[in-house]
User: Fold this.
Amino acid sequence: MNNKRAIERHAARPLAPRPSASRRLAASLLPPLVMGVLVVLAYIWTRSGLEPHRQFLMPTLEGLWSQAFSRPDVLVQLFNAAITTLSIALAGLAISIPIGLLLGVVMFRFQVMEKAIFPYLVALQSIPILAIIPLLQSALGFGFLPKVLIVALFTFFSIPTTLLLGLRSVDRAIIDLFRLQKASWPTMLLKAGFPSAAPTLFAGLRISAGLAVVGAIVSELFFLSGPGGLGQMLINAKIDFKYEQMYAALLVSSVLSISVYLLFAWLGNRLFSEWHESGSR
Amino acid sequence: MNTEIPTMSNVPAQIEKDMAAAKDRPPGDAALIFDGVSMVFPDGTEALNRVDLVIESGEFVALVGPSGCGKSTLLRLAAGLETQTAGDIWVDRDSLGYTFQDATLLPWRKVLPNVELLMELRGFDPAERRRIALEQIELVGLTGFENHYPRRLSGGMKMRASLARSLALNPAVFLFDEPFGALDEITRERLNDELIALYARQKFTGLFVTHSIPEAVYLATKVVVMSRRPGHILASFDIAFPEPRTAELRYTSQFAEICGQISLALRQAMEG
Assistant:
């Protein structure tokens, strides 16, 4: 009996021609286009389901244009509000980033400090920050400072934790290399620790940056005095039944938040793509 | 002109210091001495048990032994990365070169600043260290790759950059911790040839840990066989091939014979 199995032919596959420029453009444009069409369909479907007297909840595109984006006074208001929100967000980051970095380094250097600090960081993260806002209000009033502190609280957690993680992951052999030259601890931190931890830290910063805008808007929802940001504009437009303007503020908020995230993503990519595995080719 | 005039008070002090240093210094022209060195790790692992090894200035010693017998630990002790639990080590740690199993280049630095790193840590003048780095890069055949990030280099090229980085300090004693272990055979042989040329040129004292017997025999003036853990020296073979060695040496019958003898000793080390 012949127990030898029959062999099969496996044909070659010639290299496919590279898709043309127009096809590649279409391939990159198609996904957002499909998404956009789906959003519009969902909008039309939801709006058509609303009773006529409730249709103000979803303004039409014409309404959005005539009541908001075509009116210079609304545009100026939107612009000023965006600047206010952005400055609260950035001021919050200006507090949380340096303190976060410092805490990360201190926890890395002194294990005792890590044991002392880390549990409180986790606890801080799990306290609903919204619940502390009334307390901050009572203590600090309704000015700029409490809003900035809220942003700082929102954005704080990921900075020391990602820095600590990054510093811990420095290649042991690189540390040995520095030790062999009797490098001081600050030198090691500066020339080996920070560069090595930077990509991890940046992942944390990207999250914080996005959260900063969210935190700024949320903080304003609780403080309806002072120079208004986008959050305040949202609430006031709602109170005045100016739903077109509310949607406009909502759109600008989203754009702002996404832009800050993209800015940090771009910056990280620029800094690390050439040497780090996470970078694109 | 040296204007420092010895005063009455510091002369006897200096002499006393010199005498104190000389009293304990072992005789001979050794560059690296392990004198009854033992190492027990905090977890109780006994890595080395009374290692005695004298490496004369200008010698190139290859260290072979079973996996996990403490060869790397011996190098780490010599460099002061770890401290032995018994015995003495004699070496000038200010003039030490060290290559690791991986190239350990800083991934965020291009080749040139990577080669400059050790000089930078030693506080060399920037212009000086650039000059030396370019010289070393040329010596290891990496000219044209100064501005490449390590991730764009092959394994062999990374190791070359790593060698250039150590050579830049012109070390008197060079410790190699299995530097070519991860490379393919062809690249490894080429780097062996280049290392021989570097050794002939720079005249450092070498201690080279390897798993490859032909590599050990080809490079070294002496091959030392270590026992299983806890490691100690079992046998030592003088390799008396004429210098400078050439690649053809590998294909001679004398070469094969000495490789065979060491292989046998290593086999006994693993069993015994």
